Amino acid sequence: MKVASGFLSAASAVALSAAMAMPSAFVLQFASVSVAQAATVSSIDVRGNQRVDAETIRSYITIKPGQSFSSADIDESVKRLFSTGLFSNVSVNQVGGTLVVQVSEYQIVNQVLFQGNKKIKDAQLTSTVQLKSRGTFSPDQLEADAEAIRAAYARVGRDDATVTTRTIDLGENRVNVVFEINEGGRTKIAAINFVGNEAFGDRRLSDVIATKESTLLSFVLRDDIYDEDRLRADEEALRRFYFNRGYADFQVVSAFGELDEATNEYTVTITVEEGDKYTFSEISVDSTLPDVPGESLMPLVETQSGDVYNAKNIEDTIIALTEHLAGLGYAFAQVTPRGDRNFENRTISVVYTIDQGAKTYVERIEIRGNTRTRDYVIRREFEVSEGDAFNQVLIQRAKRRLEALGFFETVEVATAPGSEADQVVLVVDVVDKSTGEFSVGAGYTTGGDSPGPSIEGAITERNFLGRGQFIKFSAGGGESSQDYQLSFTEPYFLGRRIAAGFDIYQRQRDYDDYDSETTGATIRFGLPITETLSTQIAYNLSSEEYNLEDGCDVGNDFCGVSNAIVDAVATSPWIKSSVSGALVYNTIDDMKSPHAGIYANVTTEVAGLGGDAQFVKLTARGSYYHTLSEEFDVVGIVSAGGGHIVGYGDGGLRIFDQFQSNDRMIRGFAYGGIGPYDAAGDDDKLGGTTYFNASAETQFPLPLLPESFGIRGAVFADAATLYGSDINVVGVDVQGNEMQWRASVGAGLIWASPFGPLRIDYAVPVLKEETDEVQEFNFGVSTRF
């Protein structure tokens, strides 16, 4: 029988409500039978299906021929059919002894086409939309995809992009979906205004945030895109900046952008309240754990009475205490800092309270939003896994690690209740960003290793195939040089925090009287010891080939070069097989724009594992960064270094094995311009077995240029000595072999260009020897570390 259309049972009403929550294009029509009047049918007739087999549809129906059913069975059958996502309309009616199931199938998407797009390629837009080829078509999803495309254009600075949609009916229930895109003009940021800041100037705060004003180079840097998520991240960066410099009451009152539709430019205004600057007063640890008195934990505390308030030091203390307690068997110990402000003295006393904590476990880690980066790349940054004890400190550490990767625009880690009271779910929300880079750099030097103009290009991918791997190919050269290098690094070798990689390179040099070609490879492994200390070991293999002018030989005065060079060239090709080990200590706050911290490394290389070279080389270098003026963004840098090499075996040292001076050792002198020389060979520099150097530098913003240009000035003073040549060749008269100091002073310009950091220096020697070679100007790639 067919039930009157006006009758609707309670169960049917529930099913209808569920259907009404579905897309508006759905039309649900069905009749039900009374709960009190159970019915039976002898057959089920499926109508309207084109692609889906009738038996497949019947398999979703809970009603079976010959069995009694009620309206609840109809409701459940309808829900099941809609849950397949295959049908836009379902109608269920009983006609005599037959149950008629009338369905309308969704159309199938044949192709998804994009028209008018240039700034965002088809492949990226395809990953943005949900409608896919051979998938089902939904009008509501079509509109949602159009909005997703508009959002994608907003993220690349094109807020006025428009998207219109249409479909092309191909017959047989198939359609082509077309997104017609008008990309519009590029939105820019005309100005970033800070309101309420007194302790730090606008320039300093602009350096903290990622959003930048538009400049001539913004089309390359892409850092002038107004994005709400980026602005929220900038707010957090400002909070961290102030909290780490004593301003415990700091808050961002508001941060927003106003669009001038006439110029298509944003003006960003960030209003802050700095509050007072605090220092730490009394510091103590209060432990409720048995056998762990608070006094015994004081050596682990990073915060000290009298120091400027620093939130990072508090975080580091919590981490240190938590890890130490976990090692003592208290896996759930909770460290809670409790601060007490003294508003009159502007001090904060801190008590680290330690409790046993609730026993809570990680049920699962749920990762969302990563469209490119693979899940395991994110999971491996967590030191906790499913089933482990929940530890908030380790969670926050993982968040910082994910942010430090540079793979994501934003990283958010939250918790949700698990299936049991003692279970939590970690929810990790990320937004992928572009990690590929193309860079071009240029330089000019008047002498040394590769004199003359030079240019270098590099292609870098920091998240290769979404696997977190680093790969880079670079090529460069000039009038007298050519360089090629391929580098690859897997940061988690064999699933452990061991960085493994290789470098393959070739270098060619053309000097006045000879040329050289070096081909080599390095296999390296890096292992973190602590958060600030790491080690690296490597195996190095290289082949050096040299060619002199025709007829040159030891004892021939017309060769124009020292016999030390002629003797070394005679051994060509020269094979060097060595192992090296390094220790790196790094507490730099920002590797791109350092303002505080220490970067130091010590490296030892032993050559002689086969090949021709036999020596032991030790080098060390350290740099200390300190902000001299927060208000004016002035940074002071003190650096020092040294090295020593000693040969063993029968071969001894060649001139090419010894240290040669360069601009990282001392500026104002040419490459190889100081040190021992051959008095019998036109005073050719021989290099030395030992060097020491030191430098003091002050960097500051240039007052007439916007901070967004990325240009800073510098003044410096350098000192160095190079001595101890170990060359023993017939016809070589080694002079200037004693420790003699050289010094220079100068000024420079540093440009954080989109092609890499570039620098030009002008240095004047103030202490030198008569045979030294001076080079006052130097322009090239800036290398800090």
Written description of the protein model:
The protein has 785 residues and is of the alpha+beta class. The chain folds into six domains: 96 residues, membrane protein fhac (Ubiquitin-like (UB roll), Roll), CATH 3.10.20; 75 residues, Ubiquitin-like (UB roll); 86 residues, membrane protein fhac (Ubiquitin-like (UB roll)), CATH 3.10.20.310; 77 residues, Ubiquitin-like (UB roll) (Roll); 72 residues, Ubiquitin-like (UB roll) (Roll), CATH 3.10.20.310; 346 residues, Porin (Beta Barrel). The protein is 16% helix and 43% strand. The protein is built from twelve helices and 37 strands. The strands form eight sheets. It has a 16-stranded antiparallel sheet with strand order 17-18-19-20-21-22-23-24-25-26-27-31-32-34-35-37, with no helix packed on it. Strands 1-3-4-2 form a four-stranded mixed sheet. The protein has a three-stranded mixed sheet with strand order 5-7-6, covered by helices on one side. Helix 1 packs parallel to helix 3. The longest helix is centred in the first third of the chain and has 17 residues. The radius of gyration is 35 Å and the shape is globular.
